[in-house]
Amino acid sequence: MLRHEGIAREPIDDRQVLDDLVGGVERRLAGEQLSFLLNDCCMSEEKRLRGTRDAAELAWLERLRALRRRLSVASDDELVEALGEITRSYGEEIHGHFDSRTYQSATRVLPAGLALLLRKQKLWAGLSRGLTGKLSLADKIRCSGDVATFDRLVELGTCVLVPTHLSNLDSPVIGFALHQAGLPPMIYGAGINLFTNWLLSWFMDHLGAYRIDRTKQHRLYKEVLKEYSTYALERRWHSLFFPGGTRSRSGAVESHLKKGLLATGLAAYQRGLAAGRQDCRVFFIPATINYSLVLEAETLIDDHLQEAGRSRYIISDDEFSRPDRVLQFVGDMLRLDNPIEVVFGSPLDPFGNPVNAQGESLDPRGRAFDPAGYLMSAGQLRSDGQRDRYYTGILARQILLAYQRDTILYETHVLAAALHRVLEARHPGLDLFARLLLPRQERALDQGEVDAELRVMLEELRSCAAAGGVKLRGELVTGRPEAVCRAAVQQFGRYHRRRAVVMEGTRLVLEDPRLALFYARRVEGYVAAVAPDQGDSR
Amino acid sequence: MSRATPQLTVFGAGPWGSSLAAWLAARGYRTALWSRNTSKVEALQAGQPGCLGQGSPPPELTATTDMEFAAAADLLFLAIPPRYVAGLVGRLAPFLRPEQRIVHGAKGLCEDGRSVSQVVLEGCCVLRVGVLAGPVEPADLWRGSACAAVIASPLDSLVQELRSLLGNPQLRLYGSLDLAGVEAGGAMWAPVAMAVGMIGGGGMPAALGPVLLTRALVEGGRLATARGGQAQTLAGLAGIGDWMRALLEDGDPLVAAGRALAERPGNCPDKEGAQRVSTLVKLAEQYGIEMPISRAVLDVIDGRSVADALAGLMSLPSGYEVD
Q1: Higher-confidence residue: A281 or A191?
Q2: A455, A533, B64, B242: most buried, per Cβ within 10 A?
Q3: CA B321 to CA B90: how far, in whole Å?
Q4: What tens digit of pLDDT does each residue of A201-234 get?
Q5: A536–B317: do the CB atoms touch at under 8 Å?
Q6: Angstrom distance (rounded) from CA A468 to CA A409
Q7: Is A493 exposed, middle or buried (0-12, 13-18, 19+ CB in 10 A)?
Q8: Which residues of A touch B319 (CB under 8 A)?
Q9: CB of A272 closer than 8 Å to CB of A156
Q10: Is A538 close to B98, i.e. CB distance below 8 A?
Q11: Between these two residues, B262 and B55, which has the higher pLDDT value?
Q12: What is the pLDDT of residues A402-423, one digit of tens each?
């Protein structure tokens, strides 16, 4: 029996969901030039599906072509009808297939499934241990932070979990973390490309995932997605967004968030207030998912560095698409101490204010107040899109601050950053790309020099951690630079095909400077930059 | 005087605050003027003529030292120097509600580099904040002189509300959504006004005035950009439009301080102005941006002669006019 029911609190009538979605999109777009919007949709889909041979896609294209031919002469009613048809079609694709009974079995099997992935154990042994809760997975995915408040808030309103995003493993990891912490299931938007992995697809389907197709870039699709999210929050389906939009390509902590889905929290709250609902509060829970090693690090950093990569929003050929690499990664990670940690941050209201365990918004001095006033003018609830974007911007800034505070740095991050900083100081005239192309002998650095850099960095990081600005693990907490080096080199040797850093006698070699850069970027913003260039303009 | 809940409250009964409060009250708004200065408040409550400098207080004006009463208004104007804002917001915070709006008229940043709007946002529950800026003087309002100003807030609804509340055929109000840019323009007022005074006091050619202003425009643009605003905003009433007043009018205390510094470098008669320039220079270092005019003004505040400071500025390499 689920302790918190969340999306399982009521049977979900898929047909009703789609009807409501169509109605919601119609209301959302009331007053807009529907013919323009539909034309944009048709053109965009034509472009997206150019050259397709898939029968279903061809049929869909034919429907859109027929619609486009009618657009210039269509009456208002016909346009609304066409809008409804397209919305319903997108809604069918997006809407997940959550079922409380399957959820319960899926969550029971999840640890075993993950462990099988991770430990390559025999099926039955894994399943039996998973079902009896004796697996060591819980030791490997550690949860920390304000779980108790989160636990209370799921009963008081709708929770929106907004984690950092580094890996496609984030979804199952956080799903497991929620289950482990006794928290309710959450629906979440997952890239449709992820459903190609059969095992993950099964879990995602049954753990509340809905599908987002990022190749559909036109406005109507985005409005359908936003309406679906708003509707879900209104129905008190706790939700999970990755507000960074995509995995961090550079390895750095997110510094910019996409606000479209974030804004749906405020929209749902506003609709709840308008309907006079008592339980309409929406709470955002920032979270960080931290790895000492990242499954797709090699592909992600390559993508970040390649000019072509900037437009390659969806990567479908990375390590995640190769089961052997996933198995190897998870197996290797399990041999590390605390390799994955999820930190649940302090909750926020849709305006970026902190929230206490009673669900009350707090001002900067800790005084509780009712945030409904933010949406009022002259005592009345008013809708105002520009105002709401401003509020969502404030929320986004607070989430980013929480990410900074709740990020965990491991030895791998700090050693990689130290090596890159030494290289940067040695070659002040070279830009990053030139440094990455330095010959191997130039990338071999004296241990003493690296230790000196590490000493300075550790001092800064420990002082930052003491002030609550970041979290440190392992040797970073109190260890000496040599110990940090040893631990990091050992961890780098665990999984990646090519080691980021190797030790050769008294020298540390940046064996794969690009891969090391991915880990180094996590430290950005926590230590002072290396000798910035000085401008000379007045 | 009425004791009904005010529609508007002005905090600070200095020349700006009291003029603004009286002007608002004269326009029929139920206005409170809050001050911690009990004798001033008592004089206003007694309706003593002349205590505002413009005759008897209008009947719609209530002077008060009661923070809770003053904080009840929907719209609050802060007319106090930046260094007192954090303290005031701290005392106000327990009485504030999220539907309220707070607008300030401060030119300058707080000592820690935060703008007044940042201090408000970080100190209480109010999120709807704005600033009134531009070349408007209290006397302009009372004389009924034609004047113009800019209202800036990230919220269009607040800009529109304030324009309709304050604007009239006498006061032409423009709107801006660039709060950070407008506040950067205000922050540049101290070094610009002091530099104008130094040019006059140091017997420098008058043509340096326009040079100063146009270069300050670039400098202020860098500051605005570093703080998340837009450089272009400085080309408006909150930037160069305001600074030109320093060239055209003679009476500003900061211009006078610049003139005094030209005669006696290192002896700044306006300590608050000196502090604002120092804050700007520290911020420039923090942001890694060039602010040579502010730097040169600070040098004179610290004792360097104006001629030396000018020579230093003139010897810097010149590049393209706009960054």
Answers
A1: A281
A2: B242
A3: 43
A4: 766 666 678 888 989 999 999 999 999 999 999 9
A5: yes
A6: 13
A7: middle
A8: 536-538
A9: no
A10: no
A11: B262
A12: 999 999 999 999 999 999 999 9
* CB-CB neighbors (< 8 A) of B93 in chain A: 363-365, 367
- List phi, psi (to 5°) of A298: -65, -45
DSSP sequence for A121-187: --HHHHHHHHHTT--THHHHEEEEESHHHHHHHHHHSEEEEEE----TTHHHHHHHHHHHTTPPP-E
For the domain made up of B8-177, the CATH class stated in words is: alpha beta
Lowest mean pLDDT among A8-12, A117-121, A257-261, B154-158: A117-121
Cβ–Cβ of A367/B319 closer than 8 Å? Answer: no
Q: Which stretches within A427-510 are classed as H helix?
A: 432-436, 447-466, 475-478, 481-492
Contact B99 A538 (CB under 8 A): no
Residue A374 and residue A372: Cα distance in Å, rounded? 5
φ, ψ at A269 (rounded to 5°): -60, -45
Place of tokens 């900074």: A404
Instruction: Look at the domain B180-315 and name its fold.
Output: N-(1-d-carboxylethyl)-l-norvaline Dehydrogenase; domain 2 (1.10.1040)
Decide if B127 and A374 are in contact by the 8 Å CB cutoff: yes
* Interface with A, mutate which of B89, B99, B126, B227 (most A CBs under 10 A): B99
Rounded to the nearest angstrom, the gap between the alpha carbon of residue B104 and the centroid of all alpha carbons in its chain is: 8
Here the tokens at position B225 are: 């950009």
Residue B290 to residue A535, Cβ atoms within 8 A:
yes
Token pair listed for A524: 């950005």
* pLDDT tens digits along A349-369: 999 999 999 999 999 999 999
Instruction: Mark residue A366 as left, alpha or beta (left: phi above 0; alpha: psi -120 to 50; beta: remaining).
Output: left
- Residue reference for tokens 């209480």: B124
Find, in chain A, the residue whose alpha carbon is nearest to that of B290. Answer: A538
Per-residue model confidence as pLDDT tens digits over A237-267: 999 989 998 888 888 899 999 998 899 999 9
- Strand B147-152 relative to strand B128-133, pairing: antiparallel
This prediction's pTM: 0.88
Neighbouring-strand partners of residue A380:
A377
What length does chain B have?
A: 323
Question: What are residue A265's phi and psi, to 5 degrees?
Answer: -65, -45
Residue A455: count of CB within 10 angstroms of its CB: 13
Domains B8-177 and B180-315 share a fold: no
The domain spans of chain B are 8-177, 180-315
The answer to whether the CB of A87 falls within 8 A of the CB of A21 is yes
Which chain B positions have a beta carbon within 8 Å of A365's beta carbon? 90, 93-94, 123-124
The distance of A245 to chain B (nearest Cα, Å) reads 22
Per-residue model confidence (pLDDT) at position A105: 60
Whether B157 and A367 lie within 8 Å, measured CB to CB = no
CA–CA separation, A434 and A294 (whole Å):
25
**CB-closest option in A367, A374, A393 to B94:** A367
For A78, A86, A300, the CA distances from A221, given in Å and listed in that order, are 19, 9, 27
pLDDT, position B258: 96
Q: How many CB atoms lie within 10 A of CB A535?
A: 12
The candidate with the shortest Cα–Cα distance to A461, out of A516, A400, A399, A522, is A522
Instruction: Give me the residues of B, 291-310, that contact A with CB < 8 A.
Output: 292
Q: How many residue contacts between A and B have a Cβ separation below 8 Å?
A: 71
Task: Report which of residues A197 and B150 the model is more confident about.
Answer: B150
| CB of B318 less than 8 A from some CB of A | yes
Closest by CA position to A149, among listed A358, A353, A403? A358
- Say whether A538 and B319 touch across the interface (CB within 8 A): yes
Instruction: Tell me the per-residue pLDDT of A317-355, one tens digit each, with 9 for 90 and over.
Output: 666 666 666 666 666 666 666 678 999 999 999 999 999
